[in-house]
Specification:
By secondary structure, the protein is mostly helical. The protein has helices spanning 3-18, 36-51, 55-71, 73-80. The radius of gyration is 14 Å and the shape is globular. Keywords: ATP synthesis, Hydrogen ion transport, Ion transport, Membrane, Transport.
Length: 89
């Protein structure tokens, strides 16, 4: 399983464990320190969801995304394959 998929699973698990402990401070940190590019994205999603009190909703959406990537290999490749070029018109 790729690191990105593991990060999605990690965020989902963290959100479920810590939804009731999310604070209202200006800078919301994840309950577990995260590092690297994946960690930055997960931290940003966690902080935004926590500030808006939508951790459960984000958790459900990430679980749906994870399920889609497991069911559809082409969709997974579209998201995670660095060789696929982005076309913006």
């Amino acid at each position: 399983m790729s690191r990105s998929l593991l990060s999605l699973q990690s965020l989902s698990a963290i959100a479920m464990r810590c939804a009731s402990t999310a604070g209202s401070s200006p800078m919301v940190r994840t309950p577990v320190p995260l590092f690297g590019i994946d960690g930055r994205y997960v931290s940003a999603i966690w902080s935004a969801a926590s500030k808006q009190k939508k951790l459960d909703a984000v958790d459900n959406e990430l679980k749906q995304l994870l399920t889609l990537t497991q069911k559809d290999v082409r969709f997974k490749d579209l998201l995670f394959n660095p060789l696929i070029k982005v076309c913006v018109h």
